[in-house]
Amino acid sequence: MKKVYDFLEDAKTFYLATAEGGQPRVRPYGALLFYEGRIYIMAFGQTAATLQLAANPRAEICAFKGKTLRVACRLVEDARPEVAQALVDKMPVLKPALGERGERGVMYYLADATAQFFKMMELEETIHF
Prior knowledge:
By secondary structure, the chain is an alpha+beta fold.
């Protein structure tokens, strides 16, 4: 799992795909946290993404940095204030948008995940967590 986190961290930007009815929706993300042995991402509260995840928590994440990483997962909301605080402590640049304690963000951890690393079109490794 740490290998997946490190790859996403190194890539800086990753893309989150959610579903809205039968239509896929993809957007760039960059807020990432490794906390208590879990990979977390953050979405701003009350956005299309958070509404889509409330209706269907299945998502995919994709990033590229010399190789491609694709992660199929379920995103589970974690409303504990200490998780949001850990993110703004790691990324203080987010404080103006999220608040001093990250109270305007929604934290999700990746569960039931299958991560696949590809070089060109060839699958190199699969990690389940």
